[in-house]
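Structural prep section.
Before we set up the soaks we want a predicted structure of the protein with AHM in place, mainly to decide which crystallisation condition to try first. Input record follows.
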Amino acid sequence: MQRLTLTQHIRQAQLRHPGAQGELSSLLTQIGVAGKVISSKVNSAGLIDVLGSTGVINVQGEVVQKLDEVAEETMQDIVGRSGHVCALLSEERKSIMEIGEAWRGEYIVSYDPLDGSSNIDANVSIGTIFGIYRKKSKDPEVTRADWMRPGHEQVAAGYILYGSSTVFVYAAGDGVHCFTLDPAVGEYILSQENIRLTGACKQLSINACNAPYWDPWVHDWIGEIMKRNDQDKRRVSGRHIGSLVADFHRNLVYGGVFAYPADRRSPRGKLRLLYEAAPLAMIVEEAGGAASSGHGRILDIVPDELHHRTSLVIGTKAEVELAEKCVRDQVKEPAKG
Ligand code: AHM
Ligand code: MG
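Run finished without errors. Recording the tokens verbatim:
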């Protein structure tokens, strides 16, 4: 079988777009390089003293793990100095990081350097999520107009999942493609081209221990899905890792839906729009699935701040639409009491 590397695949896609300068292709390749570095640290975490927390609380109010810091530094070093970005926007940083003249390019990358990091010490799959925007304003500085943008303006999005193997998944308008890192040669090799999420929903991922805080529509939605299981056959299974990027990837591969709805504890939702929900929403839509806050399409939400949080239902289209219907029905019939 002919092996196709990530770089070759990106180059082929670039050739289908006459006029493309190759900047985006090169940026995606550099993100892949950052992923290789992070992957090697994750794989040897127990050996090189990068397990555990730093003791620092980040801008999100969460404990920073040592590997969070390693991943953040890696993204800054490699993507920030790729020559293709003018700003980085990270879960781990309070404000955007403007890139100096020497390395400045035309793209803005928003990323979660290590999603699911609360699971690190238990060897659970974690990952780096990214979304890419082209600078919009003519202003030489990066202004709010450059990054306070809806996800449908992303030119590409993807993630690198550090699991039983490391995979790089991306979408840039030509389908969703998955590459597996061959550790023997240090290259990402195409393993699944044009992934489609159009089959039945077989898995439901949600942190059910948040049930006491949910709005009624969430109970209705889960009830509707679970009704499909009868004595003859289990059609849907509960599968929840607690690492968004890993839950998302499993649902993309097997067919499923993930939800982290807003609740009484997190009235705006827990997950962040710019570097968690929006990139995955671009991928899921390109694969034939959907992503919604329950009130509307994730890709249409305009962030009002860097760390804007959102309610999220993402995966198979029918189940995302069902969630939106349950929200509408709840609005029509507000809960008693
Ligand atoms: P993180 O980016 O700090 O890891 O936080 C996001 C994570 C998601 O990966 C995961 O789905 C969610 O938070 C889990 O939250 P909870 O423990 O509240 O279920
Ligand atoms: Mg995260």
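Observations: Residues 62, 91, 112, 115-118, 207, 242-244, 260, 270 surround AHM (ligand 1) (CB under 6 Å).
Flagged for discussion at group meeting.
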